[in-house]
Amino acid sequence: MAKNLVTPKLISEFNRFCPGCGHGLIAKMIAQVLEERGVEDDAIQVYAVGCSCFISTVIKADSIQAQHGRAPAVASGVRRARPDAVVYTYQGDGDAAAIGLSESLYAAYRNENTTAIFVNNGVFGMTGGQMAPTTLEGQKTATSIYGRNTELTGQPFKLAELIAQMPVAYVERCSLANAKLIAQTKRAIGKAFDNQLAGKGYSFVEILSPCPTNWHMDPVKAYKKLEEVVAEEYKLGVLKDSKEDSK
Amino acid sequence: MKKLVIYKNRCKACGFCIDQCPKDALSFGEEFNDSGYAAVVSDENLCIKCGTCYRVCPDSVFELIEE
Ligand SMILES: Cc1ncc(C[n+]2csc(CCOP(=O)(O)OP(=O)(O)O)c2C)c(N)n1
Ligand code: SF4
Ligand code: SF4
Ligand code: SF4
Predict the structure, then answer these.
(1) Ligand 4 atom with minimal separation from the B49 CA
(2) CA of B39: which chain A residue's CA is closest?
(3) Contact A117, A80 (CB under 8 A)
């Protein structure tokens, strides 16, 4: 008999994300991955600031909130205090790639045996859609009303590519654009946790995710934009796999 | 027999499942749920119980269970 497809036990029945927000989908997949491996009771999630911080109410696992951007540093501390715990960070792009860039890079540089889930929706979601380092060229946001001027503000920021330069176990960029890519995202999250359980070191999964509210778009169009526009700038795929590298 | 369960009060009417269903079996219903959204309904005659809607819904509206 095929396995029943049910709501993960860790997932709250209701959440505060906007209609179509990718955060809900990613949370569900993290919960599935933890439950499939039977480690949900050992999980400690570290999050910071942004809509991503609702993760603590959506995934009913043990949680610690760090200051804005500091989740990787706090997770490193949790790793030392609780060697047996399954430790992961859950952060948005404004959080991990802007104010918390230093912490993101140093956790990777130390190859902390943790899992990092990085949600790239191209804006500061919670505060009203301001430009993030990840905002696309020409993208209109609350602080780039004529479209992002890359001569003035730099190119869209590629955190995954940067992390892949560090001595880490695994880096992959995924997308929620459609059912097939969502299935691939779940596999990547699974691998990022399997690596941690096997003691392989830092695993980083960047997920291209829609923020329909601040993109001022119908959710279905926002998911289409991930496929047609965002993935042109942010190439999907495995950027680093230390096991494959050493082959 | 597999059964598609729809927790209509979790639905936020984003429409993504309707877009992704390979059989066009889903549509917005006529009734509003407790949060005021036109919750999704399925057409039993078209649904092939593939589980795509379960996989793509951000709000865990669907379950697919063996009866
Ligand atoms: C030290 C500090 N500075 C600024 C803020 C305001 N703030 C709240 S959320 C946020 C941006 C979060 O953006 P992102 O990480 O992209 O998350 P999203 O909301 O898109 O999920 C900012 C700047 C804060 N809470 N703390
Ligand atoms: S503002 Fe954007 S990121 Fe925040 S919950 Fe709404 S859609 Fe999601
Ligand atoms: S994807 Fe989920 S929340 Fe969105 S319309 Fe379908 S059932 Fe409702
Ligand atoms: S199970 Fe498959 S066919 Fe049935 S409604 Fe869901 S996506 Fe459509």
Answers:
(1) 1
(2) A19
(3) no
Return all residues near A225 (Cβ < 8 A) that are at least 6 apart.
Answer: A210, A215, A217
Reported as a single tens digit per residue, the pLDDT across B12-29 is: 999 999 999 999 999 999
Q: Is residue A9 part of a domain?
A: no
Nearest residue (by CA) to ligand 1, atom 18, is A125
Chain A (145-174) residues lying within 8 Å, Cβ to Cβ, of chain B: none
pTM: 0.97
Ordered by where they begin, the domains of chain B are: 2-66 (3.30.70.20)
User: A4: which chain B residues are within 8 Å (Cβ-Cβ)?
Assistant: 63-66
- The ligand with the least distance to the CA atom of A52 is 1
Range of the domain at A159: 16-245
pLDDT tens, chain A, 247 aa long: 568 999 999 999 999 999 999 999 999 999 999 999 999 999 999 999 999 999 999 999 999 999 999 999 999 999 999 999 999 999 999 999 999 999 999 999 999 999 999 999 999 999 999 999 999 999 999 999 999 999 999 999 999 999 999 999 999 999 999 999 999 999 999 999 999 999 999 999 999 999 999 999 999 999 999 999 999 999 999 999 997 554 4
Structural domain tally of chain A? Answer: 1
Q: Is A72 a domain residue?
A: yes
CB contact under 8 A, A4 and B10: no
